[in-house]
Amino acid sequence: MRREIPLIITALTGFLIIISFFVPHEPIGSIQSTFLQWYAIIAGFTMIIGLISLIRRHIKMVSKRVSGFGYSVILIAAMLGTLIVGFYSGIQYGDLFTPGTPFMWYYNSIFIPLSSTMFSLLAFFIASAAYRAFRARTIEATLLLIAGALVMIGRVPIGNMMWDKFPLIAEWIMEIPQMAAKRGILVGIALGMVVTSLRIILGIERTYLK
Q: In the chain, N or C terminus with fewer CB closer than 10 Å?
């Protein structure tokens, strides 16, 4: 019964949510909002459990002095510092995001610069991946190279200075071929989500029980 009860709860919840989309009348209509509230509560507890698990793992790494345990020390210190500053700002000022609170200083002075640094590093990885993808070894790669070059030229001011049609060409590529491919990918993702949801609701997919 330890496996059957979660499967029954999952199946009933999934079917009720599906029915609530098509039957907005009471009492079924309010089921969806109720489940969403439960989901928010459960998600909050899962974040707490994940935080505790993360701290325990890195404390174990520090205690065993594994390679790179210094990063674990920094992570634990940053997490505890964020919690302390957040609690203090919430108690002292009533709102974390009020300008001038210690939490906002922490966010603007530490978190945002670190995020900017991370995105700056990602730009180099993206450029490296684009260089490998744009090698014109096949017809498809050649088309990708031409389309990427036209879009990049059309999206920068120097492209408009070179030829006023470059922005129009870039906009056409983004609105017609790119949008068609994007919608095809989104349709495939949606079908995959539907299939996966049905497998979970029907009890075929049980990996979440492990």
A: C
- Structural domain count of the chain: 2
Which residue type, as a one-letter code, is found at position 65? R
Q: CA-to-CA distance for 96 and 164, rounded, in angstroms?
A: 48
Nearest 10 degrees: Cα torsion 179, 181, 184, 190:
-70
Q: Is residue 39 a part of any domain in this protein?
A: yes
- pLDDT tens digits, residue range 20-64? 878 777 777 777 778 888 888 988 899 889 888 988 999 999 998
pLDDT at 130: 73
Residue 2 lies in a domain: yes
Do 38 and 10 have their domain in common?
yes
How far apart CA 194 and CA 105 sit, in angstroms, is 43
pLDDT in tens, 155-175: 888 888 888 889 999 999 999
User: Measured between alpha carbons, how far is 114 from 108 in angstroms, rounded to an integer?
Assistant: 10
* Domain region containing 91: 67-123
Task: Report yes or no on 94 lying in a domain.
Answer: yes
Q: What is the reported pLDDT for 136? A: 64
| Residue 135 maps to a domain | no
User: C-alpha dihedral over 176, 177, 180, 184, to 10 degrees?
Assistant: -170
